[in-house]
Amino acid sequence: MNIGIKDEDFVRGKVPMTKEEIRILTLVKARIAPDAVVYDVGAGTGSISIEAARMAPQGHVYAIEKNPDGIALIAENAKKFGAENITVVEGTAPDALADLPALDAAIIGGSGRKLADILDIIGARLRPQGRIVANAITMQTVAACLDYFHAHKDDYSYEAVQVQINRLERVGPYDMAKALNPIYIITAERK
């Protein structure tokens, strides 16, 4: 299944959504297998959950979201794209992760300042060679991720990339590059 659903194809609302280019890179870094179990923590509109579900048709995606508007959008988008292998988990991580099964990949888009606790729970259930991909827009989240994985370097190999996307925007007779917010993508693989 191809990845890269266009942003405008998702039902949106006012809930944050991972943009198409970042979504593609995130999913590639996650290396989701057809039978993978995936957590999408801070799922927002469900854009990553939907694409992950399409990549894992024999697997299952758990979309964890605390915002009621986001929960409704995830359900609506799952229905729109026929993604029946998604379970929406209403609540705040890490508590919302309590009863979830072992996993192959976790994507973290929001952590509510509880990143270490979330990573501890995910790490306890992550299968060997499982991957964690965290998208960060603040330096504090980047630092927290790197500190965590450095402190657990015997358990994980990790990398971080900073991505800056520019889209052309028509301005009169000209095309001008309009920058989107830079994103850090931190990837860790269980040894």
UniProtKB/TrEMBL annotation:
- Coiled coil location: none
Record bears the keyword Transferase: yes
Query: Which NCBIfam families does the entry link to?
Result: CbiT
Q: What is its EC number?
A: 2.1.1.132
The entry's keywords: Cobalamin biosynthesis, Methyltransferase, S-adenosyl-L-methionine, Transferase
| A Gene Ontology BP annotation from the UniProt entry | cobalamin biosynthetic process
Q: In which pathway does it act?
A: Cofactor biosynthesis; adenosylcobalamin biosynthesis
Gene Ontology molecular function: precorrin-6Y C5,15-methyltransferase (decarboxylating) activity; protein methyltransferase activity
Q: Mind telling me which Gene3D superfamilies this protein's record contains?
A: Vaccinia Virus protein VP39
Name of this chain's protein:
Precorrin-6Y C5,15-methyltransferase (Decarboxylating), CbiT subunit
Q: Where is the Methyltransferase domain?
A: 35-138
Q: Which SUPFAM superfamilies match?
A: S-adenosyl-L-methionine-dependent methyltransferases
The question of whether Cytoplasm is a record keyword is answered with: no
